[in-house]
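Data availability (excerpt). The following record was deposited with the supplementary files.
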Amino acid sequence: MKRIFICAISILFVLPTFAAKKEKVQQVDSLGRKIKTGWNFGVLPSVAFDADLGFQGGALTNIYYYGDGSQYPEYIHSIYAEAAYTTKNYGIFRVNYDSKYLIPKHRLTLDATYQPDAMCDFYGFNGYQSIYNQSLHKWNKNPEKMDVDTYQSRAFYKYKRNLFRFAADIEGTIWKNIKWNAGVGVLGYMIGECDIDMLNGKHKYELGEDGKPTDSKAMNPAIEGLYEKYVKWGLIDQAEAEGGWHPYVRLGLTYDSRDQRTCPTKGIYADAFFTYTAAFGKQAAAGYNHLQFNFNFRHYVPVYRDRVTFAYRIGTQNNIAGQSPFYMNTYLNTLFIQRVMYEGLGGANSLRGIMRNRILANGFAYANVELRCKVAKFDIGRQHFYIGLAPFFDLGVITQPYELDEVEIRKLYDEDCVETAAKISKGENAVMPMDFDKYFKLDEKGNIDQSKVYMPHMAAGLGLKAAMNENFVLSVDWAMALNKQDNAKWANFYIKMGYLF
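Predicted structure:
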């Protein structure tokens, strides 16, 4: 990972950039920053690493147009395009456009994204109420460190999720820093159980004469992951088990006094908005038309000029009418699409160090705190760079848990055990479900523990930033969950573009 990061930094620094017309004199703003004008092209191989998604390879570009530089570091037009794929079968194919000037006095953002994900994370409902056991899916080459009796499958906490998204968002001014927002879009989810044959690839699952697998890396297709179990036990309804298409409309208000968008050094950004999402066919009949409310508050406090900034964000997302399908509760609504994905909660885009989608519930709240320090500034040619450090702390809590019908769940669990035992007695390839307490956290009376639902999920870490011309930021975050139920790894790395908020 270190070599990949060094390579990416080197390319960022030495890659030539182009201007629509030659800059004769570089003026400076009130903070002494040299002003950019004209077109600026930032191009990089899309080389990244995410603890949840693996190593990423591809290409990306971000094209900025600054005009005469009078609004620098704000840009007039931004065009972002990326095509990449990771070692854990996660793809990114995205085009994004952002401007405050295409429509005079209005900000317009357009985004089209397709994300195939062969192994999307699924850890159950209600956070700590669902047990996470690393040994169920962690394969270790060292037999002394491998819990062979406990191991299930590398895909045990996974399901397939392919997502198509199109969004068009616009913002206009009501008075000074108070703005109105509106948006329309569509989310298309195509989900199901993991394709084990595809994931196995050359590692075919076959049993030898001794009754053991001939290839230790092959996954047993008879083992059902947690997603399949949730469908069997009625926790995931049949109407939502395969995904669906959901057009939406969004309305809200924004207050924005930030000095810039990418890395503000002072000001406040706050928004409050409603999102109505529709459903079709059996999903509409099941009540999956729903209304959600989001509130988000960000504050950027200058500590020392533009060199040191204390930044924090608090927010919440809650369902206030109807019912949202489980796969949409992993999506964090936003007024403007700036990242490839907004996962909520857990992972690089919400709670760093905590596993992606670890906190899955109908409603949640979160907080992120950072101390952003620009430790070095320098120029290469006509391009302006800085290197920054940002220690951070992330926290998330559930506000609207799923209501689990334990009697019905245990009934369907028992039926699953009986059916599986019958298959095994007939010589069919099947695997018995684990004990009930391997899936759910139980209290002293043996019931699903309700006290764990509202416990906070916390993580901390350190970010390293390499920025060109204030807007093109390569970010490397190291983070660690403070509870092993959120991630048993002591270190998690993420290489991304831009700041978290």
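Summary of structural features: The mean pLDDT is 88.
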